[in-house]
Amino acid sequence: MTSPHLRIAVLAAVAAMCYTVPAIAADMPAVQAAAPSAAINPKAVLSTMERVADWQLANPSKHRPDDWTQAVGYNGIMALANISGSSKYRDAMIAMGEKNNWNLGPNHYHADDHIVGQTYAELYLQTHDPKMIAPMRASFDDILANRRSGTLEFTVKGNQDRWSWCDALYMAPPAWLRLWAITGDQRYLDFAISEWWVTSDYLYDKEEHLYFRDSNYFDKREANGKKVYWGRGNGWVMGGLVRVLQYLPENHPERPRFVQQYKEMAAKLLTLQQPDGLWRASLLDPATYPMKESSGSALYAYAFAWGVNQGLLDAKAYKPAVQKAWTALVANVQADGKLTHVQPIGLAPKVFDDNLTEVYGVGGFLLAGSEVYRMAVLEHTKPQTVSVANPTSGVRGDELAEATIGKGISKPVVMDAATSAIVSSQVIGKQIVFPVNLAAGETRRYLVLPADHLAAVPPADVKTHARFVPERLDDFAWESDRTAHRVYGPAIVNDPKEHLISSGVDVWVKKVRTPVVDKWYKRGEYHHDVGEGLDFYDVGQSRGCGGTTILANGKLHNSSNFKTWKVLADGPLRAIFELAYGDWDAGNGRMVSEVKRYSIDAGSNMTRVETRFKASGKGPLTVGVGMVQRDGDGHYVNGAGSAEGWAAYWQPPHGDDGSIGCGVVLPVGASGYELIDKQQFTLGTAQPGQPFVYYFGAGWSKSGDFADAAAWDAYVRNYAQKLKAPLKVSTQ
Fold first, then answer.
1. Residue 522: helix, strand or coil by DSSP?
2. Which of 70, 158, 571, 619 has the highest CB neighbour number within 10 Å of its CB?
3. Using H for helix, E for strand and C for coil, what is the string for 371-394?
């Protein structure tokens, strides 16, 4: 279940994307709007992009919602969503995905029906909702299992089961690259690369540095005797090159080959830009096709601006071309936001009406705008560059990187250097944290900029939250977008119905990526699942999932409920708080107290705890981090003998509620594992006054993340391994 606010936004977006009559009646007097500005500054560029997108959403295309035409539009809407201060654009894309049930187009092998997956994947990288990519992954897996190897000859039946026309290089490969980036499945990357070069070897003219549309055009000639190279067709290739290079790692052995083709084509296309800043429908015969053309020109502006921003293209040569192209494209936008001069669908260049528009033209325009916007932002600021490297052999997805903010950067924001997207971030003291997704061994760059150099900052998704809950007997509750917990405060000790003395950790399971804690407390009932999750854990006086005890003389010595609390950071990406526990007898009359600092990150099922004990007497304390054992056939495993200090427990099913997994990690390793009083303990040694660090967390069989005990075991084990190989962050 979504929040009321998000649900209203999504429903409104669905209405905008569906085949409905515009909300404003045609016979109502229109307000005369000023023409959009062609100025290249962040505010003007963003304003024009939003005007064009708003017109498109209010005047939806009648193509199938999973059609390639629509999907190019989605590419542009996503690029806008990543820089706009309004959430309506991403809401529209989520609504579209829900409408499509996250399915690809109906033609299984056809590249045109893969492109919608690009938007699904980009949404997944922001929300990490498994349903967004599940159908695409199943479809691509089937393609790999039944791979086609037929001819690319366009007159032969079945040729379009492969990428036999140049447009396909925009439609399909970027979807395969994005799915690889999410999953780390090398097969997706290898397929995209190998099939690209099969198509290139067949259709790319190495002398002209341009692509034939398909094999039908090898021997055709224009009226002036030149070869037929379609403007938008080569625009698809240039856009495809950009969208592949955005996700192809810097150290991949095939990257130089892609960069070389990109530069070759860019150099040729630079010579073909017309004096008005646009390109013509036929690249080598502009006189026969003199009409202004927005869609192909937008794709070239996108590719050129991206290359300048990446330092791949010489700014002195290409920046003026981008500026001319953007000015000309904006001139094709009417005052109400309608983009005109878009060549209709077809296999080849042709004459068309100047007033025509199409959703794919809007997509190209918005993509171009996103890179022109970045160019304008970087014109007046020198960003801090942060490089984040994954030192491991697996994907590091939905993990936070942390960097020290450079001097002089006030109200910093983070931009993905590969895509121009503004990434959610959070400032904590002198540090900034932001989410990353890195393939094995990959390094990605991010730019830290002052917020006041942007026209807007996209609203952040709140993924973590922590708060004191006095209205529920002094609970303290916290959550990420994956899990939720609570512990008990002082009021419940004296409550006549409860009289509960416990410092154990309770678990609330959730199946949504949105916050639930405040909603559930406000509702006052959270023991039944109404579509978001529930509380069925029953911690009682046990250690629950991650509560601690002091072991002495073979007995457990538990603290009472926390006495005081302090919130140090409350999201959107990391929540940090402290709980203080008063003196208790930890055995043999030795009095102990502690202050625990908890932190939980977006994307994580694990909470980090750094606790400091005060104790009478000298010597270390044996600390046990507990997981209560349930009656029935549960599954327990630990890292004994591996010095990794982790343990995982998968509870037996709780009726229709499913199973909860609990995990514990001691980064420095465990001194032992014991089962005491039906509780499984991971043991470590703490020195009074020194930090003792451990992690605990929970997962659920109905969350969509953990199908069974093996999946939960793997998560806890891999989490322990990642702690020993943290992301490598460098700044300049």
1. helix
2. 70
3. HHHHHHHHHCCCCEEEEEECCCCC
Rounded CA-CA distance 268/456 in Å is: 36
Which of 580, 550, 569 lies closest to 489, judged by CA? 580
Are 305 and 371 spatial neighbours (Cβ–Cβ below 8 Å)?
yes
d(CA 646, CA 718): 10
For residue range 226-268, what is the model confidence (pLDDT) as tens digits?
A: 999 999 999 999 999 999 999 999 999 999 999 999 999 999 9
Segment 133-167, tens digit of pLDDT: 999 999 999 999 999 999 999 999 999 999 999 99
Distance CA 371, CA 382 (A): 16
Tokens (6 digits) for 553: 């003389």
Active-site residue, 167 included: yes
* CA-atom Rg of the chain in angstroms: 29
**Cα end-to-end distance, the chain, whole Å:** 43
Please give the C-alpha separations between residue 112 and each of 71, 79, 118, 238, 319, in angstroms, as whole numbers. 9, 20, 11, 16, 31
Tokens of 22: 């515009």
- Separation CA 278–CA 261 (nearest Å): 22
Catalytic residue, from 167, 474, 529, 713: name it. 167
Average pLDDT over residues 180-195: 97
Q: What are phi and psi of 301, to 5 degrees?
A: -60, -40
> pLDDT tens digit string along 406-430?
999 999 999 999 999 999 999 999 9
